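Colleagues,

Please find the record for the two-part complex below.
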Amino acid sequence: ASICCKIKEILFKHGLLFSIRHQNWVQIMYRVLISMRCLNKNNILISGLCFPLLDCPGTKSEQAGKSASCQGCPNQKLCASGATKAPDPAIAEIGIKLSTVKHKILVLSGKGGVGKSTFSAHLAHALASDTTKEVALLDVDICGPSIPRIMGLEGEQVHQSGSGWSPVYVEDNLAVMSIGFLLGGPDDAVIWRGPKKNGMIKQFLRDVDWGELDYLIVDTPPGTSDEHLSIVQYLSSTHVDGAVIITTPQEVSLQDVRKEIRFCKKVKLPIIGVVENMSGFVCPKCKNTSQIFPPTSGGAEKMCADLNLPLLGKVPLDPRIAQSCDEGRSFLSEVPDSPAAQAYQRIVQSECV
Amino acid sequence: EILFKHGLLFNCPGTKSEQAGKSASCQGCPNQKLCASGATKAPDPAIAEIGIKLSTVKHKILVLSGKGGVGKSTFSAHLAHALASDTTKEVALLDVDICGPSIPRIMGLEGEQVHQSGSGWSPVYVEDNLAVMSIGFLLGGPDDAVIWRGPKKNGMIKQFLRDVDWGELDYLIVDTPPGTSDEHLSIVQYLSSTHVDGAVIITTPQEVSLQDVRKEIRFCKKVKLPIIGVVENMSGFVCPKCKNTSQIFPPTSGGAEKMCADLNLPLLGKVPLDPRIAQSCDEGRSFLSEVPDSPAAQAYQRIVQSECV
């Protein structure tokens, strides 16, 4: 037992127990003790008795510093004080950096291709039409960053200065940041696993020199994974107004969107409301309305009623929306009298009043 | 010496690093020769296991797109239906979209459960010769969210490939989520000991989609995944009343046709928008059976023929 404690002390001293997962650690210690047994001709007990003594609960667990196995550990006081459970320091830094941002809105959807980026971009345009407001649009879709194209900023570059990365300005009061600006060309693929994507999101929040903002809009990729957990985690020291959830009318979309809503509830992110895109198409020739994505289960309207969420509005399909996005122009400026543009404007009004 | 032996000292570069066995701090380490020989950089044993398990699958097709919402799941499901219409073929559809698994709904299998037996997990059968696996079958209900980071998703994909009792298959179709991230790297990695026919890339006509799709094509080239061809969905809408065609997602930069010409890839076909497609998917029926004479269904059938001949 005394030999085991000695080994434990050495490992603890070098901070090695913090970096080894429990199972590996037990295995490794077992082998270490066997080796010691080989070296020592006396019988040393190596099984059963020793492992519970060496059972570090983990520095971030609730038992850290408090469990029986922490007795005699030189780090016991440190763990018990809670210092080892400190969160990523970046979270506090981001909290300070974004404390001057009055409103933060996340645009989410469980489903892809429903119009998140289109909505984010046009929300940014609409808010920035009030030139007294400072607006920023952050694109955290690392694999498929559409925002540069939609905002007409393809080919733009980001610069680094003493105060951080400078975002790209569409208008004097409308700044944009996306990984798209960091690529060599628009076709360059970003083939990253989760942890690397998380690191980039952290940098976007901590290192971009946004300045004083009235609105920060965050466009996200579809899903409930790394990007979504990270953005919520890194913004956890700030006040986030909430999320706007985008969907299309069909059940296959709503199914994924309900998952996103559950995600929001789980991470305690308020939901500002739901927008239903692609809500019917009016033939330009005969004016007949077709439901191209039929609301077989009642569409967003029923889902919102069921889940007690505000339906902010329904936007019809309009070829001029996709056209404007491809050309990097604001659809709200190009065809302001179209039913779709008017629907968008109503949504923005309702959201921000 | 003991700590060195078990890789417990800080300045061990790590057994899988390029410096393993070669760095200055490896001097005196009893494992030095082992590391330097490269034995510690052995890949995940699951890759070899999967290679053996899927060696009886004649054709493996991945359905990819950099862009979301272009019709990957719709296409995968209907490709599976079309291939399974030949009852002499055994077909399987694997859904590796962990966050947004649409396949159970589209295949009409919502609420079905997966069972475990001695030979592994049993997939869910739509027809005698058409099996399906998705994380959707492992959830409590269809609204349950799977909020997992990359590594956990990768683990599930590994299990899908290694632990599902597919049996002897003619075709394994893999439906993927949008992007070029964990799921895509993992599926390619775990299938690296097997022969994969290639990828079918789905897009819609507008440039915002094509931009993401070109990234996906680069991904395929980077991981040496052959590209079978490209399918352009939502390629025009014919008004049922006046028969006027509208390009709802206009091909402002030439659509998939130009992209395929530029990148020297086969354009397998163009499928028009048809409300009955979304309707069938919501209802879990095959659009190819429901409205076989529609232009969209015919386009799908032509694509399937061209792909598999």
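Chain B touches chain A through 71 residues (CB under 8 Å).

Comments are welcome before we finalize the supplementary table.
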